Amino acid sequence: MSGGTPKTLCSSGQRSLQEICHPLSAEDSSVLTPSPDVGTAAATGSIGEKDLSLPNGTPVDTSSPASSSSLLNRLQLDDDLDGETRDLFVTVDDPRKHVSTMETYITYRVSTKTTRAEFDLPEYSVRRRYQDFDWLRIKLEESQPTHLIPPLPEKFVMKGVVDRFSEEFVETRRKALDKFLKRVADHPVLSFNEHFSVFLSAKDLNAYKKQGLALLTKMGESVKYVTGGYKLRGRPVEFAAMGEYLDVFTQKLGTIDRIAQRIIKEQSEYLVELKEYGPVYSSWASFEAELQEPLEGVAGCVANCCSALEELTEEMCEDFLPVLREYVLYIESMKNVLKKRDQVQAEYETKLEAVAFRKEERSGVSPQMPTDVEKCQDRMECFNADLKADWDRWQNNKRQDFRQLLTGMADKNIQYYEKCLAAWESLIPLLQDKQENGKPETN
Amino acid sequence: MKVHVVVKMKRKRVKDRDVCGTTLLKTMEINVAEAEKRTGKNAVNMLETYTVYLIETRPVDTVSEGISPTPDSLWRRYSEFEILRNYLLVTYPFVVVPPLPEKRAEFVWHKLSADNMDPDFVERRRVGLENFLLRVASHTALSNDKIFFTFLTEENGWKEIVFETGFQAKADSRLKALNATFRVKNPDKRFAEMKHYGDELQSVISQLLRVRARVADRLYGVYKVHGNYGRVFSEWSAIEKEMGDGLQSAGHHMDAYAASVDDILEEEEHYADQLKEYLFYMDSLKAVCRKHELTQFELEMAAQDLSSKKQQREELATGTVRTFSLKGMTSKLFGQETPEQREAKMKVLEEQIQEGEEEVKEKNSECDEFVNNAWCDIERFKDQKDHDLKEALISYAIMQISMCKKGIQVWSNAKECFNKM
């Protein structure tokens, strides 16, 4: 295997992507090949000049949405995550039950405040049900396949015991839906997605959904990244690392979930015994004289500790576990995105190799690279760029989310102990006072 | 006589608060300092392992003067304490005699060993035996007993001395009497109420100890599972960059949290022991009430006997037969007795009546004396019980407070680590 001139190709064995150079890129290495629709190909060029037609973020009608989003990434000079430059605020609240002859379901109010130009009004308030969120997510995945789409809370309730309309369930779901929309709104690319805008603003979403089919063909948003079964030669180190990280992380999250569940179970069993423990002091008090008050006092303290424990367990169930599970879902969808990326790379490599092989057979060098291969390379590079940017963002968000989650868990435990402490501390002066002013000694 | 129990970690001290009445504790300091394992041949010539306890005594004057000479000491095993106690029960039936620590570990939550050889059990027993001696030594009547004094001061030969008192025989008859059923016509209501109280207290403390053991079991589980967080946080931190340190340190705090439950529950055993003491005390209390019933019954029997003898005399004197008797029948059938026979009978009856009246008088004063002494001791006991149990509840509350504070500390530490993630 020679490490020599890029144009010579040996027919043997596997080669890494780096070794198979783009026949056109003799000098330049990291050239972004503009999409075919946007002007003529050039080795270099300032993208800004080419893309005068792009307004402040609206996706361009191109045949390759991926490349347009990567263009957008380059337009945006900094990530507006700190909220200072945020111009879109979304909230999910006010769950309401709707009863019809056909079905019963819950809707949530989705409120939007924005200064973005593509919105007609500065404020919106619409009602959406879970189905609508699910639709939105699917649309985002389809139209932005190179990005990490945040997860939704689980669609189906597995355990038959859980009441779909209970306050706790609805509240847990509402929080998750709110988180979902906020994550989309904070994303520099996803937040400009047309489906998202419509979701936030349309009075009649169902009409738009039906229309979507027509739009689909118009915008050419057919799923382009169907797995073609191409073989991947070598995954770039950073993406391999991502995959490994996600594997281990999922494992750890699973373990934490199990531990949290176990703790909840142990706490529940502890509570059962405590609930029996307190009343024994009460029944003892019933046939005592001097000791009656102290014993009742102890019974009261134990009862207070019981309710504090109940609150703690409830909160862990409602706030802690759902967030963990959300992340597991998030990671699953991320792994799928990584797989897609691998496929895109594999497709490119295979096609490139085929072209190079064909070139070898002819005695000359074709002046032009088939657009097909160009497109593939473009797709791959955009994918990689999007993914890297999203990955960093995701890592950051993950860090914040888990910091919040775990400090929240610590807080709940601290509050539990503080409540118990207050109960027992209030008992002491009562007991000690009686002790000092006790009955005079008798012989 | 009131005793003031100051509850400290692992050692209870019974101190004299009252000035009236001499007790041994005023002049002598008593400790059960150590426990040791011994092996020896028992009564059936088999090798056995048992534990002995070191009793140390020292005159109080020397201690207060600042001089601390080596205490006198001897070794005793649990069975010898039992003998002493049985002797006291028999000799002072009007006293609510302090109980010994339990023979076998009961109301155990599953992590705690039920093995008599377990060092924790032995240690708690040592404390319990010391407590027993201190209670006896602070009781006006019991502490002045010679046998008790010898128990504390003479290792060898004590057993012979105590058996010489012949208390064994009395102990057997006492047990029989306690278990016998008899109906008393006019018991002192206070004693009946006390006996009832004893039953109720035994029942409720047993229940309390059972539930507490289950609570302890569950609490153990909750704390220990948190230790798993320690491990998983550590593993997770290995794949993180900025989050790693915070996670790792938080994990250490979770480990500390899990480990802290052992001390918490060990301290709580002390509370359980305080409850157990009063659970066992109820047997003594009920025995005193029972003894009253017995003396009252004997008095009533004697009075009844006397009354029937007097009736017989009357019948003999007046010749009227009020009650059906075989004599009456036979005299009807076979004729009346001769005057001589009747006079002889009368004489016997008069003697018996004389004896009977003495007997009743004696029994009466016995009964009264017992009632006075016993009720006095019961009142003393009631005050002691109220005081001690209140102290126990206070110390329990303090334990809970300490546990809560530790919990807050650990979770605050963990929170700090999470914040640094």
UniProtKB/TrEMBL annotation, chain B:
One of its GO terms (cellular component) is plasma membrane. GO terms for molecular function: phosphatidylinositol-3-phosphate binding. Residues 31-159 form the PX domain. CDD domains: BAR_SNX4, PX_SNX4. Keywords: Coiled coil, Protein transport, Transport. GO terms for biological process: positive regulation of autophagosome assembly; protein transport. Residues 346-373 form a coiled coil. InterPro entries: AH/BAR_dom_sf (IPR027267), PX_dom (IPR001683), PX_dom_sf (IPR036871), PX_SNX4 (IPR034902), SNX4 (IPR034783), SNX4_BAR (IPR037430). It holds the Pfam family PX. Belongs to the sorting nexin family. This is PX domain-containing protein. It comes from Denticeps clupeoides (denticle herring). The lineage of its organism: Eukaryota, Metazoa, Chordata, Craniata, Vertebrata. The gene is SNX4.
